[in-house]
Write a structure and sequence with these properties.
Chains A, B: This is fumarylacetoacetase. 2 copies of one chain form a homodimer. By secondary structure, chain A is an alpha+beta fold. The first copy, chain A, contains 8 helices and 28 strands.
Chain lengths: ~400, ~400
């Protein structure tokens, strides 16, 4: 029997070159989903490339969870093996064109937490939601990375259509709450972090140890119904305004692929409590683009985010709370200081009062049929860029409504 | 081969008679956890009683999830078969004494949501946390059942020790936040509801359909660090003040076992929106007892809870959010109108200003070594009571502290 082999080549400026090698889950018609990496515009089956015996049996699973659970040393080893293997002749059967596969949710999500880590975003929301307060930030904001738990079951992969949610809302002119499809449907452009291995109850993960636990990063769109959220969120926080859907990109970019993107976070003043102090740069110079019906409307800079992912994980666990393989925590909306760097439309259109032009039409919040695509890249070696792929979603009408 | 058989008898006034038959997961030394029912003080292995072939293969699983996923008709059928089987001679090997087994978390928890459904509790907390507001209830409270998502990974079975959490707090006299073990560790006596079968994204569960989806009920203690919670919860709700641990009782009481406990909820005025309207009584006449170091300090009446579990599930899904087998939603603290009916110590001791005597000692919040046991019963047929068992937990010192 002859095994057909091939040698893959990737353009030198590809955002999916040998310095990236993200992990995802793909399938081809008639076959179950399996782990893969993306190399240029090739999707390479990990089991067929590296073998499926012993420790590599995880490369036959329908999610990345079993591989992630093998731990940090194993991730390091597999990444090195993968980089070496892709320089050689490989089995042609392991390779598919990106266009020929279906990409799936890469991770079975355990607990999901969304942070509020961008100062520009938090300040903008404070001004819009609590204009009576002299300081747009709440008193706790610079002392701890604020977050809330969200619904894991409604996290979907890029390309999944998003049905406009219905719910209760009560505008300033409504005497009583009304029920119906959200009239203020929004996005939040975020970076999500996947926990590869968690911590047992009672044994917090320190900032220093976070590096060993975070498997990688994804793009994350936390679709938000602002009218539902505004009515429900006091005093226990957002729920129905968010829980209908969140979109993640299909490729998990390994943390080491972002080594070239490490920068200092913005200066944290007042000084943080010792359990949040960082021993190395944990900011990430990741540049987002938000496309609304094909037009770039915003370029949020992740480097401007105040709290780092290591601080987020350390804070989440400092009370002894356990995390697990497959936990996902996201940054919250990434917004920069400029108007065209705001990662949510409620900020970009200032609560809907300052419409923007999108592909020749006026917009404040999302119309049915609108499509949002988040993309991002980060600095890689030798002037290259590391790509995150995309988080894409199109809005469908609520069944009760043709809005 | 002879199979040893036995006929079980249970006292007529047992809270675990043939009208209850809750489901749980037990193990004996050297054997894996398996599903069982409790009959009096006997634990009866479901696989050994009913067989393990075909549909009954779910009775060899280490959680109830596979059985629950079989759906409402199957739950009805198994309950009838179980009631019939327990009247006959059964295999002695299927039966264990309650004292001889270890009980486990009965359900692998998917998404977990905690409500705020008791008006007395919400009003008490409003008076304590937001004394400046003329109305202790927030404007949305009587229009929707408020809730937040919590951490599934930290839900533990009765009997698990609870380590005092550490975290940030900032008291009124603190210039800056301080870090350390919680000084205001509290309980919340709640009823939890287990979702047996969920809904696909975009297809809400109506109030009328809730009956088909709710598998049963458990006791739930939402341990709460009030000092951590008070500092963190604005604007995104509680997180670290709760996420360190919640305790559930090991036996899931099937919803049909609570038929005799159905009562009307308190009058809901103003009228709810149509999607929250109920077509049958959904209040539950479940009487709690809260034991603090062996002494009953409170008797919260579940019948006083304003929002019903059917309304909770309908609200959770009305925006199209999916639920899954193993989802757990809890009521929030059950408090009645009287002081000795308050289900949290922050209410019972009015923010710590009115200490109570507990077994000869003064208490406001929990001391290390304190043990809390929640129990509850509900009306069953012919003057009997339906038992929930108990949710028990003892407080251990934080490693940094001998408090």
């Amino acid at each position: 029997m002859t095994t057909l082999t091939t040698r893959l080549s990737v353009p030198a400026d590809s955002p999916f070159g040998p310095a990236n090698l993200p992990y995802g889950i793909y399938s081809v018609p008639g076959q179950p989903p399996r782990p893969a990496t993306r190399y240029g515009d090739h999707v390479v089956d990990l089991g067929l490339l590296l073998g499926e015996q012993g420790e590599n049996a995880v490369f036959t699973e329908p999610t990345l969870n079993a591989f992630m659970a093998q731990g940090h040393d194993r991730w390091t080893e597999v990444r090195a093996v993968l980089q070496a293997a892709l320089r050689e002749e490989i089995a042609a059967a392991a390779v598919h064109d990106l266009d020929a596969v279906t990409l799936h949710l890469p991770v079975e999500v355990a607990d999901y937490v969304d942070f509020y880590a961008s100062e520009h975003h938090a300040a903008n929301l404070g001004r819009l939601f609590r204009p009576q307060n002299p300081d747009p930030l709440t008193p706790n904001w610079k002392h701890l990375p604020i977050s809330y738990h969200g619904r894991s079951a409604s996290i979907v992969v890029s390309g999944t259509d998003i049905v406009r949610p219905a719910g209760q809302r009560k505008g300033p002119d409504d005497a009583v709450p009304v029920f119906g499809p959200s009239a203020r449907l929004d996005i939040e452009a975020e970076l999500g972090f996947v926990v590869g291995t968690g911590n047992p109850m009672g044994e917090p993960i320190s900032v220093e140890e976070a590096e060993q636990h975070i498997f990688g990063a994804v793009l994350f769109n936390d679709w938000s119904a602002r009218d539902i959220q505004a009515w429900e969120y006091i005093p226990l926080g957002p729920n129905l305004g968010k829980s209908f859907a969140s979109t993640v990109s299909p490729w998990v970019v390994p943390l080491p692929a972002l080594d070239g993107a490490r920068v200092d976070t913005p200066v944290q003043e007042p000084a943080v409590l010792p359990y949040l102090a960082m021993d190395r740069p944990w900011g990430l110079d990741v540049d987002f683009e938000v496309r609304w019906n094909g037009e770039v409307v915003s370029r949020p800079p992740y480097a401007a985010v105040y709290w780092s992912p290591a601080q987020m994980l350390a804070h989440l666990t400092v009370n002894g709370a356990p995390t697990r393989t497959g936990d996902l925590f996201a940054s919250g909306t990434v917004s920069g200081p400029e108007k065209d760097q705001r990662g949510a439309f409620i900020e970009l259109t200032w609560g809907g009062t300052e419409p923007v032009m999108v592909a020749g039409a006026t917009r404040t919040f999302l119309h049915n049929g609108d499509e949002i695509v988040l993309t991002a890249t980060a600095p890689g070696p030798g002037g290259t860029r590391i790509g995150f792929g995309e988080a894409r979603g199109r809005i469908l009408a609520h069944p009760s409504d043709g809005r």
